[in-house]
Amino acid sequence: MLNKIVALTKEFVSIKSNSENATELDKILEIALSNLKGYTIERFENKGVKSALVYNRRLQEQSDYNAKKRPSKFRIILNGHLDVVPGKDYQYLPKVKGDKLYGVGSMDMKASVACLIMVFKEVASKVDYPLALQLVTDEEPGGFNGTKYQVEKGVKADFVIAGESTGLQIANRAKGVLLLKIFTNGRTAHGAYPWKGDNAIWKMNQFLNSLLNRYPIPSKQEWVTTVNLSRIETSNKVFNKIPDDCEIKLDIRYVPKDADTIVNSIKTLLPKGFKLDIVAKETALFVSENNQYLKILQSVGEQVTRKKVGLYGAQGTSDARHFTRVGIDGIEFGPKGWNIGSDEECVSIKSLEQYYQILKNFLLLMKGGDENE
């Protein structure tokens, strides 16, 4: 099985399924689905973004089982994304060095998807409860037209596993995302006479100093709210003119306890005349450590790896949040990997075998119950 997982991962890595490359995104989705023939495949498309939901019912067993008869709720949904953060051309040529498989998206999360496909095929006909594999192509830009859209169309579950790379640990918490644009005006004048103008960039700089004072950049990984200044813009293009406008873009990752206060916290720092636009506010992820599915997954993981499987808070986010926003518990769980989004992104091949075995054992333990729930 491991050879099949590695081969499929290599095939996935060779495809430039960057967020802006619709042709390649469609191609990789079709390759993934070609490995799942015989199962019910429900296709979705929103704003040109395609995704799919694969059910554990074989078409030949129930030919009239279609999208209209989708289970009202799956017990487990395995969630995986096929889009990647762009890399250099050579990174789309997968290579293996020792235990590591290198390539764009190998860690995030094409190797995980290969495992999800193989484990679904292995257990789908052996379990007596509704099981689904969710494959999307827009997680990197936010998952709004893939996972979120499917949730809006009624896709539900008792428990969701997003196959993000977690080093075979379980992320039961993840920071929320707040994207902001902040704008201010000034007054233009010739650059030689700065006292005659009101420089919008200097005004913005004063706000940024206050923002940095309230949310200092951590010196190491911490479970705190962080602010990234991702862009500063002005319409001014010349040296000898005082800019009369300035806009910034902020990427804020907030811990769950700040969910209800983060926007007002930023607003209290804004000087008079500044404008704030909320581009997106995405839910922080939190699942109780006492969740029954989480505890079983944790136990199975420890049996397979013979090591402790801990719980932790993820700095980044995943499509699991689209389920938690509507009250469906979801966690992140995946193999070991390194250097996410960098030139040396890679995944541990040994951990792929362990990941596959953990998921297989976990899903088989879930047998029993009403399959029409």
Automatic annotation (TrEMBL):
Transmembrane segments: none annotated. One of its GO terms (biological process) is L-arginine biosynthetic process. Residues 174-272 form the Peptidase M20 dimerisation domain. Keywords: Hydrolase, Metal-binding. One of its GO terms (molecular function) is metal ion binding. It comes from the Bacteria. This is Peptidase M20 dimerisation domain-containing protein. It comes from Candidatus Daviesbacteria bacterium RIFCSPHIGHO2_12_FULL_37_11.
